[in-house]
Amino acid sequence: MLRDGALNGKTIIVTGGGTGLGKSISRYLIQLGANVTICSRRQAVIDETARELTEEASQLTGAGQVLAVACDVRNPEQIENVMAETIARFGQIDGLLNNSAGNFISPTERLSYKAFDTIVDIVLRGTYYFTLAVGKYWIDNNIKGTVLNISTTYATTGSGYVVPSAVAKGGALIMTKSLAAEWGKYGIRLNAIAPGPFPTKGAWDRLFPEPLASMMDPTSRIPLKRVGEHGELANLAAFLLSDYSGYITGESITIDGGEVLAAGEFSHLEKVTNDQWDMIEQTIKQANKASKGQA
Ligand SMILES: CCCCCCC/C=C/C(=O)SCCNC(=O)CCNC(=O)[C@H](O)C(C)(C)COP(=O)(O)OP(=O)(O)OC[C@H]1O[C@@H](n2cnc3c(N)ncnc32)[C@H](O)[C@@H]1OP(=O)(O)O
Ligand SMILES: NC(=O)C1=CN([C@@H]2O[C@H](COP(=O)(O)OP(=O)(O)OC[C@H]3O[C@@H](n4cnc5c(N)ncnc54)[C@H](OP(=O)(O)O)[C@@H]3O)[C@@H](O)[C@H]2O)C=CC1
Questions:
Q1: Domains: count for the chain
Q2: Does the pTM exceed 0.95?
Q3: Is this entry keyworded NADP (predicted)?
Q4: How do residues 12-60 score in pLDDT, each as one tens digit?
Q5: Which residue of 45, 131, 160, 219 sits 20 to 30 Å from the alpha carbon of 276, by its own alpha carbon?
Q6: 251: domain range?
Q7: Residue 6 domain flag
Q8: DSSP letters of 270-286?
């Protein structure tokens, strides 16, 4: 969507950038000229991704560079180390993509206290720790930075069986809007993306394992009848991290093929056949006549 070089001169930190959607978004940011620091807990995973993205970038003109720094987003000292290494290598930080997450499906009554804490700490605490650290740095250095949080559609609707994740993503979304209001005066923007299903190993292993995968088709309740493509999400993320979205802040943009709309009272009626619609139409028209005393 964006032109080559659209992110030239920008440095963006991507949490969870070694795998899945974070890796795909990082790839696109680098193609557009941004320097990207990827971070997550597993050094070997981010090192391998950095090697792969560096190799791909070497085939392109004007691509950015990649740095891998290990970090558990629940640990403020490790976050500050990621920032220091990024500034030492690239000069400054312009953008933060809070993408790291932990999640799994489970009936809530089966969860231990630690299980609940683990998800909320990664998703909510990790997001506000990183945002606070980078925000303080931007305010101190008069940098008009941009935060983008990867949310989910159930951050606003809620969802059974992923309650810790819903609680944490909901909290992170309210933080996005609240800080957009507070830090707008510094020129700092904060937005979110709420994706529907985008296949990744991390999500599918924990949210769509067997026997669920054999029991249901995740596309059946999506109006567009397909899952998302990583490039589609990367386009939106790059736009929201770029100066082209300079007047958008405090927003959450849904990218889900219309899945949340399926909750509409009558949206499931797509299964009704044309013959059945003929019958329904006649029945309703009879009722209309009856109500006017014409039956
Ligand atoms: C399919 C369609 C999707 C559409 C929308 C989806 C929206 C959102 C998607 C996502 O967020 S996808 C991201 C998925 N990726 C990840 O989760 C990657 C990182 N995850 C992990 O590392 C683990 O899954 C983890 C559990 C989150 C953390 O691992 P860690 O090693 O730190 O913790 P553990 O010690 O293993 O576990 C902590 C605690 O949790 C309990 N637990 C773990 N799994 C389950 C389970 N399946 N059911 C119940 N409890 C579980 C575990 O037993 C520990 O508790 P205690 O037993 O010690 O009390
Ligand atoms: N895939 C989907 O359909 C959807 C995904 N999302 C969101 O998209 C984002 C990416 O998910 P996806 O790519 O699918 O899944 P992945 O499992 O591939 O990504 C999660 C990333 O988070 C990192 N991570 C986990 N815990 C920590 C931690 N404590 N500190 C630092 N990093 C951590 C993991 O790396 P490591 O283990 O090395 O730490 C991993 O790279 C998440 O925010 C998720 O909620 C939202 C809606 C739908």
A1: 2
A2: yes
A3: yes
A4: 999 999 999 999 999 999 999 999 999 999 999 999 999 999 999 999 9
A5: 219
A6: 11-264
A7: no
A8: GGS-HHHHHHHHHHHHH
